[in-house]
Every structure is written in structure tokens, then in C-alpha cells.
Amino acid sequence: MIYYKDAIYNIKPKLVKRKGKYYDDNIYTFDIETTSVIRNPETGEVFIFDKTKDPKYYEKMEKYGYMYIWQFSINDMVVYGRYWHEFIELIDVLKKVYYGTKIIFVHNLGFEFSAMKNYFSDFKIFARTNHKPITARSEQYNIEFRCTLMLTNMKLESLPKNYNLPIEKQVGLLDYDKIRTSETELTEDELKYCEYDCLVVYELIKKKREQYINVVN
User: What DSSP character marks residue 100?
Assistant: First the structure.
């Protein structure tokens, strides 16, 4: 993966016109990794949820969740950042420098949306039920997120086999029982795990684009 600032101006839009509007036919994908922690308000201790403990043990505990890395692919090039303001900077540049609405594919958009909704003031949502958005559009940044889980009804790790994709999700490279922050140094295996989550979705949409001509359809 590449730090986003090293690639932000190397994108070449591929414009298509549909119903009088221009869209970028590049394949964009987005994914985040998060840490969920429990805090004991009496001692200040922070720890990972332990399923083996009695649920009553956690009744008075404080629960927190936060993003510590995001990854964004432009076709098969994956870039990353560690803070939300960096992602906002990326999509702001995409709007100002590169013409056309960007369609951004996310597997399980509901999860990412719950984490990023406070950073966008103008989301227009099309959803199946509460907390399960199919699309989320921001006119401010001229982007539209689309949920590939709703498209496929499959877990990410099932996509390569069922769609005959030339790639596999990197299962097991990221230990979810470890507390990480945006300042935590990540290993090569951890970064590879993050990168391939985007690349699996890229390969899926690449195959769909061959079938439906462009990403807008």
C-alpha cells in the first residue's frame, strides 16, 4: 500500500455520461479497520472484550470503538491513512482536481457508515432497513458509496471462490484481540490484510464492470 499523500495527484479519471451527468469509471473501494475496547471507569483500565467472562461483568463498563486505519483503492492501487481528516483531504482533492462523480464500493457499508457519518453533513441515504444503507451520497464531495454486501449477499472471504476472482482475502493476518490506535505501527502482514480487503472488492467490481459496461450501471 501507498501513503495517500504519495498518490493523491496520480489519478486519471475515466469519464462516462449517464442521464446528463458525468461519472468517473475508475473503480474506487473503501475499507476501515477499527478497535473496540472496554474501559473500567473506576480503575481507568482499557482492555478488549472477553467473551469468556460473564456479561454482567461488563454492565458498568464504558464501551468505545474507533478507526485506526483506512484504505482506499483507485483500481488496483491501494492507498491508506490513519485519521479521518486525512480521508476527508483525499476525497476533497478528488472533487477539486478530478471531474465526475466517484462511485466508491464498500463491503458492508453499514459498518463504515456508522463510523464516518459524523464527518459528512449532507449524506443522502438509500437503505433497506435502519443501519443497513445500500447507498450513501454526498453532494459536497461529489461521491456515492455503494454497498457490495447488499449486491452479493456474501461475506468478503466468500467472494473470491464464488466469483472466481484471482485473489484471496488474507484471513488470519490481523489479530483482532490486540488494541491498536492511529499511532500504532503496523506490521507488513497487518498492512497486507488491510490492502487485500480493498483488492477483493476491486476484483469483484472489475468483473461486474465487464458485464455491465461501466461502474455506474
Answer: S
Q: Which of 153, 139, 145, 149 is nearest to 201 (CA)?
A: 149
| pLDDT bracket for residue 134 (50, 70, 90) | very high
Cα 198 from Cα 191, distance rounded (Å):
11
Unique residue bearing C-alpha cell 475496547: 37
- As a whole number of angstroms, the distance between CA 185 and CA 182 comes to 8
116 CB-side CA count, 13 A: 27
pLDDT in tens, 180-202: 999 999 999 999 999 999 999 99
The answer to whether the beta carbons of residues 164 and 206 sit under 8 Å apart is: no
d(CA 193, CA 152): 21
Cβ-based neighbour number of residue 95 at 10 Å: 17
Tally Cβ neighbours within 10 Å of residue 78: 23
Classify 135 as helix, strand or coil: strand
At position 173, the amino acid (one-letter code) is L
Rounded CA-CA distance 61/39 in Å is: 6
Q: How far apart are CA 103 and CA 142, in angstroms?
A: 9
CA dist., res. 43 & res. 201, Å (int): 42
pLDDT bracket for residue 97 (50, 70, 90): confident
Secondary structure (H, E, C), 28-41: EEEEEEEEEEEECC
